Amino acid sequence: MNMLIEKLGLKNRKDLVGFFSVLTAGQLIYSGFEAFKGTFYNLLLEVLNISNSELGVIFSLIGISVFFYIPGGWINNRFSVKSILIFGLVVRFVTMTVVIMFSPSFSILKIIAIIWGIVDAFFWPAVLNGVTLFTNENKRALGFGLLESVRRAEEMLMNLLIVAVMALFSGLIIFKGGMLIYNLLIIPLIFLIIKYVPKNGIAVEGEINESDTSNKSLEALKGIFFVFSKPKIWLASISALTIYWCYIILIYSVPYLQNMYNLSTSQTALFGIFNTGLMGVLMGLVAGVVSDFVFKSSSKMISVALLISAVTLSIVVFFKVDMIFSFVLLILFSVTTFLSKSVILAPIAELKIPEKYMGSAMSIGSFVAYAPIFWVYTMNGSLLDLYSDDKIVAYELIFKIGIGIAILGSLSSLLLVIINKRKSGNTI
């Protein structure tokens, strides 16, 4: 316990509880719904009493959060991490209770999904900002790595618990009970946040200086323009975009192997669970340790990891290797991808950004980082449809694009490292 406090640069155990409360908030808000879409897709349809296409609409509406990340930056400047997390969790608790207890119509579900999307636009940057709030300036990568590991571990554990219970007592009521229990966990989490997460940024300055509301709002707005004007933030954001693009490409590794070597679904299922699930849990902690204690910089590690990703995909695409070697290479690609993804926005947190503007920095970083969701899935799907007679060609094209993207990310991170060295000790 004390070692973890020291490694993260925390002051005491109270800070440790606050830190893990922030990490848990970053997953628990999604655990009663979004986290079920992979494992309990059909049960979600039954609970909501909607069709496949209607559920697709629900998740699309939740995804509108990306459009609100930048205005969410103002909110994250104006209000403290503590206030934002509490508000977001309360909204999720109330709306999720409505979903579970009252079985609302599809029209109401769409309204709730829009609310969730808007809330997520300022809630997720607040989680990221919360990591920077607690961790030492030189230990940020470890903090972000733990965020990834804890979130993925919680999701796996919670899903496994429901699977175990439903193996003994099947039925829709059991699944709804699981959703309700996860939702109820929000209540003690709110109390932990109230007690252990301190106020920060402009919210605190306002209390100290007795500034009026208009002054605080103007200062929050200034923060957005401040962040927009900093090239290093955009370099870090571009690097984050390439990481998330590579992560999307990783998802296609399982169907690629299945088509390439004529494997059955059951033969590749275990590989998929390991490569895209368990690897995320393991690499989160590893990424933080390697970034902070080996490379001494998350940008350095990301640059190296993305370069290895490019080399790995190049071997898969341009050299005709056997099945076992392909498995090994794609596992390596998973390792480097999750090493990067675990600290995807840590380079921003490591910049010397004034604490009161960190919220908008994380909001802009989040917007750019997750922007590939707008086009990559559609582009990849179009390629697979275009080459439906020979899907291997499509997968290889997807991987070739990934090679270029990984190289771009590696160069962006390397350039950021060089600039940081030249301006060492100065603010951004």
Alpha-carbon distance between the termini? 34 Å
Most strands sheet: none
The ordered string of helix (H) and strand (E) elements is HHHHHHHHHHHHHHHHHHHHH
Beta-strand fraction estimate? under 5%
Percent of residues in helical segments?
Answer: over 70%
* Overall average residue pLDDT: 86
Question: What would you say about this model in short?
Answer:
This protein is mainly α and 428 residues long.
Task: Tell me about this structure.
The protein has 2 domains: 8-221, Growth Hormone, Chain: A, CATH 1.20.1250.20; 230-428, Growth Hormone, Chain: A, CATH 1.20.1250. Helix content is 80%, strand content 0%. The protein is built from 21 helices and no strands. The chain has helices spanning 2-8, 13-31, 41-48, 52-62, 69-78, 81-102, 106-134, 140-168, 172-184, 186-196, 202-209, 213-228, 231-251, 253-260, 265-295, 298-318, 323-342, 346-349, 358-369, 376-386, 391-422. The longest helix is centred in the last third of the chain and has 32 residues, at 391-422. It is globular, with a radius of gyration of 22 Å. It starts with a helix and ends in a 6-residue tail after the last helix. The mean pLDDT is 86.
